[in-house]
Each structure stands twice: as C-alpha cells, then as structure tokens.
Amino acid sequence: MSIARITLFRQWQPFRDGTYRCSGGRSAEGFDSTIVEVIATDGTAGYGEMAPLGSFYDPAFAEGARGAMRELAPRLIGQPAGGIDALNRRMDLLLKGHPYAKSAIDMALWDLAGRRSGLSLATMTGGAEGDSVPLYRSIAQEAPAAMAARAQKYIAEGYRRLQVKVGLDVREDIERLEAVRAAVPSDTVLFCDANASWGTAETRQFLSATRSIDYVLEQPCATYEENLAIRSACDRPLVLDETIDSVNTLLRALADSLADGVTIKLARVGGLTMTRLIRDIAAARNLKITIEDTGGAQIDTAAYFGLMLSTPQELRQHTVDFHNWVTVANARAAFTIANGKMCLPTAPGLGVEVDRMALGEPMFSAG
C-alpha cells in the first residue's frame, strides 16, 4: 500500500470568545488552519491538521506551512504509506527544518495507519491509561477584573485548571494573578504563562511578589540561558513550553535539571512521531507532561488527546480543548467534558469522522 494522493484544505476558525491576546500586545482573531488528506492506494484516507496562532507565537505561519506542503506532497506520492518513520526521514531529507509544515502530514499518516489497522492512536502509541485527560482553559490578557470574570466563567463551564496569561508589566501581572486567585475556588490549579516575554529581572520580581500564592510558572523567559539563570530563584514548579522544540533541547534541560514539566506542541516539533519520542524521554525522567498544539479544531484536538491518553497517567499535567475555542468544526466527534476532564470514545486512528463538506474546495492536490 502506497500514498496515492495528498490534498490540502484551508479552514478559517474564528475564536468563540473574541480576540485572543497574549504578551507584548500580540493578538489573533482565530486559527488559520491547514488540513491534509492522505489517500492510500486501497482508498483509505487519513487526516491531519496544523494551525499556528497567528505568525507571532512560534516560528511558523499558515502560508509558510502550505507552501512547504506543496513542496513536499508530490515527492511523497508512491511512497509506502505505512512507513511513518521512514516518511518522516524522507520529509527531513527533502525539506530542511520547517517542522510545523510536516506536522499535519505526519498526523494524517498516523490516522491512516489506525484506520487500516482498526487501532486507536492511543493504542498505537503505547496504550491508553484510563479514558479521560484533565483540561485547562487559558485566560487571555486583559485588565485584572476582566480576567477574574473570565476565570469565573470558565469555572462555571466546568474547568478546574486555568492558565493565567502574564508577561506584560510585572506589577499589573501580579494584580492579574491576585485577582484570578481571589475569584476562583481554592482547589483551582493555576499556571502563570508568560509566553517567554520576561527577562530575568521581571521574572525574579514576579516570583518574589507572589510567594504566598500557589501556582506553576510556565516559560517565563525566551532563551534557554535566561530560564536556567532564574531556576535557583524559582521555588515552585517550572514548566518549559516554547523552549521544547527538539529532543536535543529536552536532553540539555534534563542534564541541567532545569524543568519540572514540559509542554510539547505537535506543530513545533514536527508532528505526532517526534512528540511521542520527546514524551517518552520526558516520562523516563518523571517530568510532568502536557501535549497539545498551536491551534486547530476537532482533527487536531483528537490527535494530541490520543497521545495524552497513552502518556503515563501519573505524569499528565493537562491538555486543552481547542475545538471549543472556535466557532466552526471540521469533524464529528463525541468529545465529552465533565468535572474538568475530557473523554473521546475509542475509534480507529484519530477517532473522528472528518466532515469533508466543511473543508470546502481543495487548495492543492498531488497524485
């Protein structure tokens, strides 16, 4: 069985709650998603999705991804569809770098393999432990009172873990955290995510002023060296997100005892295959693990959710329900959310039924 056709679709996915703001005044109105359909010679189809958060969050942007996919797709036609590792090596040979552009293709190959074998992604990547994963909801940057009101809204919707976006003026960020903490139940788990926007001085100031509040600090500084410099001042769990872009970076962080947890994003590292490798190394060293992505709807949510299900249960931090962030859908899936956790019934591949009509006309097709 070989790859017979690869087709690209674009879907604009507006945010349900309006403009999403993060540090530095950056904002986005929705996800510009690219969906990949890979069809094998036996007619089986697999689907993948990649959606960056604007062009400012990661070294990735939607048109760049689609341009790279147009470069790769014709040169994958005729290759064995089941050799996912070999196909990833071929993509790396044909296109140096640009992991985000390979992520959706890799995802579609896993979906295809699952549909042909009758196995779920969780089963193929180690075996599911349980049937649910804790969820968090991100509180975009606003005035402290507005963020507190947003936090209460999410608590009412059933979320029990909140990510407070900080990374602007430190004094205002302290007020943001204090306002959210006072507005939600005491057992709500809080993460403070600066999205790599602080320097070491701002990070130390924030840590000093918030020692009485229980929270996890996520990616305060942009560079590896800055985060390492503040590690000794951080008396709470430190999670790396933007820094974790490869196996080599994780190995370095382990050698330096830098992180207590990691957030692995599929598009940042190149897809499910590389995410699984990074996850397994992190799990071997007992780090707390979050697997998610830079954005998307049902297809993408199902992919990282399946990989989270096969992550050791005691090491799971949480994940995110991106399909609930947006006002459109690209697949039918019986996601259920209760008590701050999400479940997805076991089904082959990613476990979703892609709505081909919702994808519209193809942007590009090869094969």
Short description:
The chain is an alpha/beta fold and 367 residues long. It has helices at 62-72, 84-94, 99-117, 121-124, 144-156, 170-183, 200-209, 224-230, 247-255, 266-269, 272-284, 298-309, and strands spanning 3-14, 20-22, 26-28, 30-40, 45-50, 132-134, 137-139, 161-165, 189-193, 216-218, 238-240, 261-265, 288-292, 331-332, 336-338, 341-343, 353-354, 364-366. 35% of the residues lie in helices and 22% in strands.
Write a structural description:
- With 367 residues, the chain is α/β, with parallel strands linked by helices.
- It folds into two domains: 3-118, Enolase-like, N-terminal domain (Enolase-like, domain 1, 2-Layer Sandwich), CATH 3.30.390; 123-353, Enolase-like C-terminal domain (TIM Barrel, Alpha-Beta Barrel), CATH 3.20.20.
- The chain is 35% helix and 22% strand.
- It has helices at residues 62-72, 84-94, 99-117, 121-124, 144-156, 170-183, 200-209, 224-230, 247-255, 266-269, 272-284, 298-309; strands at residues 3-14, 20-22, 26-28, 30-40, 45-50, 132-134, 137-139, 161-165, 189-193, 216-218, 238-240, 261-265, 288-292, 331-332, 336-338, 341-343, 353-354, 364-366.
- The strands form five sheets. Strands 7-8-9-10-11-12-13 form a seven-stranded parallel beta sheet.
- Helix 6 links the parallel strand 8 and strand 9 (189-193).
- Helix 2 (84-94) packs antiparallel against helix 3 (99-117) and helix 9 (247-255) runs parallel beside helix 11.
- The longest helix is centred in the N-terminal third of the chain and has 19 residues, at 99-117.
- The chain is globular, with a radius of gyration of 20 Å.
